Amino acid sequence: MAVTENQIIKRQDGNRRSYPVKASTKILDGTLVFLTAGGYADDDTATGVNGFVGVANGEADNTAGGDGDINVEVWTEGDFVLVGAGSYTQADVGSIIYGDDNYTISTAI
Questions:
Q1: Do residues 56 and 71 lie in contact, with contact meaning Cβ atoms separated by under 8 Å?
Q2: Which member of 28, 47, 54, 101 lies 3.0 to 4.6 Å from 76 by CB, making a disulfide possible if both were Cys?
Q3: Cβ count near 71 (within 10 Å)
Q4: Which phi-psi region, left, alpha or beta, contains residue 38 (left: φ > 0; alpha: ψ -120 to 50)?
């Protein structure tokens, strides 16, 4: 049905998302954020198990909390200057990148 009045809608910026933080975890501003199998934000790749979701937009300190007690906001799109493991050349532009830890990236798993 078409509306005839202004509507207030819930909206989230397409470049940012918020995730509940894993218990006993501190995520630092500007670091890589990953999701555990349980759906909680973590600062650890868990050797390729946790999926990358973005770059932290602010610190989230849940070191004294339980799973999901606080949220962390992450940037999901953008251009970021990060630290790379190994050397890179112009030929690496556009390559798939993997997180080695919460701040280092690599072109290999």
A1: no
A2: 54
A3: 14
A4: alpha
Number of H helices, E strands in the chain: 0, 10
Q: How far apart are CA 46 and CA 109, in angstroms?
A: 12
CA–CA dist 98, 63 (Å, integer): 26
**Per residue in 16-68, pLDDT tens?**
999 999 999 999 999 999 999 999 999 987 877 888 999 999 999 999 999 99
Q: What does the radius of gyration of the chain's CA atoms come to, in whole angstroms?
A: 17
Concatenate the DSSP letters of all residues of 48-61 into one string: TTSEEEEEESS-EE
φ/ψ of residue 105, rounded to 5? -115, 165
pTM, full prediction: 0.82
